[in-house]
């Protein structure tokens, strides 16, 4: 059985589109709702995929409630519940620093690859169209090529984040009179940033897509941990000296995922 199968949804609304994903590490069947892939049923290797309808029926109330909540919070999430994967973005809009990068896509032989062109444009060769050449490697399937394109985009965003974010964080640290040990940049699935007890801060490259005031809020939140490595009242009092509107910014951050291209959620 393939490791990833998309089952179209019913035109009557139930069941919704569902992606069946086989995991050798999973011991039991489980459900999750992913921004990029919608409703996902994870099955242990050897589990009969025909039983996925039983799983959906048992958890129907939970599924409907959480799908509705996601659509309400993030209108773009509805696209993840369609019968196709999200389309690759044609624009990377780095709101945090006012940079925009256009992305062009062409099919071509070989593995998917990215090329940076002049004028703030990227060219991604998505690989050969299925059936256009012998499948020399196992990756020439729509799903595998889509994942490869996503990986290329993430790699570019991480590279841009490593170029931009440490300088911004260092500037804020100096302005606040705080001693920053180091700054690294990753692409964490759920966290915008983190701070260690040794004063090392790690930021998500996804911050580039946020408006400047929200990206700055995350940086100040982490920098405040250099003074108070906890979430005590003293911490929040200090944070308020750096970011007087931190409460409003924190509420806004709950919906900030919608600034990202859906494919990169």
Q: Largest sheet, if any?
A: 4 strands, mixed
What's the SSE pattern?
EEEEHHEEEEHEEEHHH
CATH architecture of the largest domain: 2-Layer Sandwich
Superfamily (CATH H level) name of the largest domain: Metalloproteases ("zincins"), catalytic domain
Gyration radius over CA: 21 Å
**Which percent range fits the helix content?**
25-40%
Q: In what range is the share of β-strand residues?
A: 15-25%
Mean pLDDT: 87
| First and last CA, distance | 27 Å
**Class by SSE composition:** alpha/beta
Number of domains: 3
| Side-by-side strand order of the widest sheet | 1-2-4-3
Question: Would you kindly provide a written description of the structure presented here, covering whatever features stand out?
Answer:
- The protein is of the alpha/beta class and 265 residues long.
- It has three domains: 4-81, no CATH class; 91-160, no CATH class; 164-264, Zincin-like (2-Layer Sandwich).
- It has six helices and eleven strands.
- The strands form three sheets. A four-stranded mixed beta sheet has the order 1-2-4-3, covered by helices on one side. It has a four-stranded mixed beta sheet with strand order 5-6-8-7, covered by helices on one side. A three-stranded mixed beta sheet has the order 9-11-10, with helices on one face.
- A hairpin with a 3-residue loop joins strand 7 and strand 8.
- Helix 3 packs across helix 4 and helix 4 packs across helix 6.
- The longest helix is centred in the middle third of the chain and has 35 residues, at 142-176.
- The two termini are 27 Å apart.
- The model has no long low-confidence stretch (mean pLDDT 87).
């Amino acid at each position: 059985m393939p490791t990833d199968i998309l089952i179209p949804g019913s035109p009557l609304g139930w069941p919704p589109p569902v992606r069946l994903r086989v995991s050798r590490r999973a011991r039991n069947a489980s459900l999750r709702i992913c921004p990029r892939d919608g409703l996902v049923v994870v099955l242990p290797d050897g589990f009969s995929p025909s039983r996925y309808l039983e799983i959906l029926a048992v958890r129907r109330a939970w599924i409907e409630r959480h799908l509705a909540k996601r659509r309400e919070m993030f209108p773009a999430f509805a696209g993840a519940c369609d019968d196709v994967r999200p389309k690759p973005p044609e624009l990377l809009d780095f709101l945090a620093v006012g940079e925009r990068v256009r992305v062009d896509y062409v099919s071509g032989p070989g593995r998917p690859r990215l090329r940076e062109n002049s004028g703030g444009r990227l060219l991604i060769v998505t690989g050969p169209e299925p059936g256009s050449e012998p499948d020399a490697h196992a990756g020439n399937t729509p799903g595998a090529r889509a994942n490869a394109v996503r990986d290329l985009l993430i790699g570019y965003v991480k590279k841009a984040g490593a170029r931009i974010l440490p300088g911004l964080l260092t500037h804020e640290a100096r302005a606040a009179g705080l001693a920053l040990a180091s700054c690294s940049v990753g692409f964490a699935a759920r966290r915008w940033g983190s701070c260690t007890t040794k004063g090392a801060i790690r930021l998500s490259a996804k911050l580039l897509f946020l408006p400047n005031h929200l990206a700055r809020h995350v940086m100040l939140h982490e920098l405040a941990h250099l003074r108070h490595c906890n979430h005590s009242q003293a911490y929040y009092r200090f944070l308020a000296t750096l970011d007087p509107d931190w409460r409003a910014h924190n509420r806004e951050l709950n919906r900030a995922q919608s600034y990202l291209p859906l494919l990169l959620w």
